[in-house]
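Students often ask why inverse folding is considered easier than folding. One informal answer: many sequences map to the same fold, so there is more than one right answer. In these notes we will look at a single instance of the problem. The structure comes first.
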């Protein structure tokens, strides 16, 4: 899938659209979801990598995918979450609506069932 530079998360990265930022480093930005499905619902995205979907990834993306997961662990600690869930929707048929790869970090309530 071709990357659309005008997607919402791209605009959040470049500051065109404001976000409630919770974590940032050289490669990763994380901010609160505008429509939270749990008390803690944070989106974790790469800042430079132009990847639409997890399903588009290959061996070249191993490093950034690892960094996204490590960022999730750091953010969970910052948010004092003992338990949390990571969700990645890949493709419209799985519910993906923004085509800049992202992880949902969900926590702060009982997560017994799949919720997204
Ligand atoms: P997807 O359905 O693609 O896996 O997840 C996209 C997520 O982005 C949704 O949970 C949606 O609520 C969130 N979202 C969409 N637009 C914005 C926005 O402008 N700001 C923030 N913070 N979240 C957004």
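Output (designed amino acids):
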């Amino acid at each position: 899938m071709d990357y659309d530079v005008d997607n919402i998360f791209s605009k959040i990265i470049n500051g065109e659209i404001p976000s409630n930022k919770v974590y940032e480093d050289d490669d990763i930005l994380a901010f609160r979801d505008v429509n939270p499905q749990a008390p803690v619902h944070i989106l974790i995205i790469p800042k430079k990598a132009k990847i639409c979907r997890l399903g588009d990834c290959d061996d070249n993306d191993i490093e950034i995918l690892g960094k996204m997961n490590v960022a999730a662990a750091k953010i969970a600690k910052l948010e004092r979450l003992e338990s949390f869930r990571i969700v990645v929707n890949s493709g419209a048929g799985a519910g993906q609506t923004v085509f800049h790869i992202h992880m949902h970090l969900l926590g702060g309530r009982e997560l017994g069932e799949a919720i997204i």
